[in-house]
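To fix ideas, we quote verbatim a fold written out as tokens:
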Amino acid sequence: MHPAHIVVTVFLALCGLGAVLGFSGTAPHLLGISFYLGWFVTMGAMLLAAGLAGALAERAWKGTAHAFLRRSWLGLANGAAALASWVWVIAYGDVPLK
């Protein structure tokens, strides 16, 4: 695992936790900063995952994808989580808060 994947995971978790606390009303002041920083983190995660997916496709063509996937699964999972959060925000982001 590359250290960048671990850093992105930690930042995704912190932004997600801040958003959950903001939506729940426990710490509403965290909502804005979580979404602002979360935008940058999710964009970075999706860009990293896109690069990893391209490299994985190339390695699959060469027949060496299994070893690469063992080292880069976290980066691909981060990209999937970031994409899922974008889909959620696009689908439910205009719903007014209480």
Notes: The radius of gyration is 16 Å. The mean pLDDT is 88.
